[in-house]
């Protein structure tokens, strides 16, 4: 298994976890209240789950799906990073969203440059 596949699986598994937590975790519910975005919690969860499954499906069946899923997760997490900065969270508090944004940007760029 190459490094790109490891990154794809890592991101996919992480976003299944994050996506499911958007529906069940009281902590995540309170975080979306703190962001002043409670109506976007379930949408975010669905997008994270769709992105996660898109990564894994795309890895094995269709590189266009892989590219779209990783690009979508990049946009979602970069948006999350911007929200964190906007509500005055520290960079350290914002680092997970920034890290996952960069990871998925790397996956998207590598996929694009390798397959398109």
Give a quick rundown of the structure.
The chain is mostly helical. It has helices spanning 3-24, 26-34, 41-60, 63-86, 91-115. Helix content is 86%, strand content 0%.
Q: Would you mind describing this structure in some detail?
A:
Helices cover 86% and strands 0% of the residues. It has 116 residues and is mostly helical. It has one domain. The two termini are 21 Å apart. The mean pLDDT is 97.
Topology:
Layout: H1 3-24, H2 26-34, H3 41-60, H4 63-86, H5 91-115
Helix pairs in contact: 1-3, 1-5, 3-4, 4-5
What distinguishing features does this structure have?
mainly alpha, 5 helices, globular
Number of strands: 0
Radius of gyration: 14 Å
Discrete helix count:
5
**Domains counted in the coordinates: how many?**
1
**Overall pLDDT score:** 97
The helicity comes to: over 70%
**Which sequence of SSEs, written as H and E, runs from N to C?**
HHHHH
Shape: globular
- State the secondary-structure class: mainly alpha
> Terminal Cα separation, in Å?
21 Å
Low-confidence stretches: none
How much strand content do the residues show? under 5%
- Main beta sheet strand tally, sense and closure: none
């Amino acid at each position: 298994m190459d490094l790109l596949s490891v990154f794809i699986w890592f991101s996919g598994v992480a976003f299944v976890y994050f996506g499911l937590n958007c529906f069940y975790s009281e902590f995540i519910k309170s975080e979306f209240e703190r962001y002043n975005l409670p109506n976007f919690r379930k949408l975010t969860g669905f997008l994270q789950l769709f992105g996660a499954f898109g990564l894994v499906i795309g890895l094995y069946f269709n590189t266009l799906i892989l590219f779209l899923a990783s690009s979508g997760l990049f946009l979602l997490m970069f948006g999350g990073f911007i929200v964190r900065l906007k509500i005055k969270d520290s960079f350290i508090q914002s680092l997970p969203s920034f890290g996952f944004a960069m990871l998925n940007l790397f996956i998207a760029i590598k996929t694009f440059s390798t397959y398109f």
